[in-house]
Design goal:
about 160 residues; alpha/beta
Length: about 160
């Protein structure tokens, strides 16, 4: 990590490492934003943004534990679109290097980016947060790929 490196024309992505289905079933929870297929769709859509952008993922934690999705790990291993940053880095230090930030709803890192005057959005591939715009007024919630493209291309 070079602190003096310029990340112009780069987008920082905050996703969430999905748990294995067997692990989720123990807790009897339903959180579709965090299902492996939806997080992979979130990343896959972002990977289709213009090639003029370099894409970086800032993981929240190490993905080495066995409770995390193998499908997600395999996706990241096979894709060449994303640069994976070390999870140990401070979100503030990382956000400071980028102009644009895309977050999985409703990551607190979006608020950090907003406070740092970065262009930030939530990308909701599941589409279950359409009514949240009444509550989350400062950060756009994008629900489809074409709107994400518009957001990314607008300076």
């Amino acid at each position: 990590w070079a602190y003096l490196k310029n990340y112009k024309n780069s987008i920082l992505v905050f996703d969430s490492i999905p748990f294995r289905k067997s692990f989720i079933s123990i807790y009897n929870t339903y959180a579709p934003n965090y299902f492996e297929d939806n997080i992979i769709k979130f990343l896959n859509d972002i990977s289709k943004l213009s090639d003029k952008y370099s894409l970086f993922i800032k993981p929240k934690r190490s993905g080495l534990k066995k409770i995390y999705s193998k499908k997600y790990k395999n996706y990241l291993d096979k894709t060449e679109k994303f640069n994976i940053l070390k999870y140990e880095y401070s979100p503030e230090d990382i956000i400071d290097k980028f102009d644009k930030v895309i977050c999985l709803p409703f990551s607190s890192t979006a608020y950090i980016a907003k406070e740092m005057n970065k262009k930030v959005c939530y990308y909701d591939v599941v589409g279950i947060h359409k009514d949240f715009e009444k509550i989350i007024k400062d950060i756009p919630i994008i629900n489809n790929f074409s709107d994400l493209q518009k957001w990314s291309n607008h300076e």
